[in-house]
Specification:
- By secondary structure, the chain is of the alpha+beta class.
- Helices cover about 40% and strands about 20% of the residues.
- The chain has eleven helices and nine strands.
- The strands form two sheets. The protein has a seven-stranded mixed β-sheet with strand order 1-4-5-9-8-7-6, sandwiched between helices. A two-stranded antiparallel sheet has the order 2-3.
- The mean pLDDT is about 90.
- The protein binds 3,4-dihydroxyphenylalanine.
Length: about 350
Amino acid sequence: MKEELNKMLQQAMEEIEKAGDLEVIETLRVKYLGKKSKMSEILRGMGKLSHEDRRLMGEAANSVRDNIASVISSKKKLLKEAERKIKMQREKIDVTQPGKAMHLGTKHPITITIEEITDVFKSMGFSICEGPEIETVYNNFDALNADKHHPARAMTDTFYLTEEYLLRTQTSPVQIRTIKKQKPPIKIISPGRCFRCDTADATHSPMFHQVEGLVIDEGITMADLKGTLNRFAKLMFGEFAKTKLRPHHFPFTEPSAEVDLSCFKCGGEGCSVCKGSGWIEILGCGMVHPNVLKEGNIDPEKYTGFAFGMGVERIAMLKYEIDDIRLFYENDMRFIEEFK
Ligand code: DAH
């Protein structure tokens, strides 16, 4: 039995020595010292021995067991320490290394321009509302007094989704939505995306942005329109800016006008930006057509109003001297980051 114990000790020592990780050590502990181990079997069998043999064998077995236990425990410590070292090495941080610079994004120039425009109108007491990009044909054309045969209704100009729905071609349908749910006085602007079947070139894009404006109250006149747009031009482009109303036609306004801005580049003398005229067209406007007011159940005998609509890309191109509208949509960071 003694021989057996010595053999076991030797074998245990060899296996413990070879163990490369804590898991192996644990299986060796179970194998040599656990309840079902050879050692437990030997200790259990000792009852059959004579008194003297039991004492001798007990001593020997205990010493082998203690020996194995202590070798296992020091090997465990060793392995734990080695594991800790590897972990420390892996997770080492060099605090003297320079940090990684965080790359901050920038606002898109169209967002910046919309914010500039809305800030100007907010300062004049306008509130901001929004309408959906998918609109009814009714809101986009019919309710805005557009003739049944108006060319803008053509499939070649408008993205139709069904007979009833389309991608709005202008922000003007927000006028109808507003007067149908709000009583005068009304003083709102509405920025948003619009869509037309245009092939992209330097000045056209099938998707673009507009800001619509609508003011309705008793006694609103064209002088209020001119005064509002003049103030907008000065706050947006600078004190030098003058505006000029030129007669035009829109179905939803009567009278209608286009607004020209005195050229900020040459001051009116004529240059390449204003194509020699000294003036640059910036928006469409007019007095809200009585038919539109009626459509929203507003009495045109009592109330009058003005409306305007401007292209955000066009304003941004003028303000920041950008000569190709496509630059806005290419997401070239060299272009976008110029607006930081
Ligand atoms: N909706 C017009 C367009 O897209 C712009 C416009 C003109 C809006 C006159 C208006 C307006 O509100 O009164 O060309």
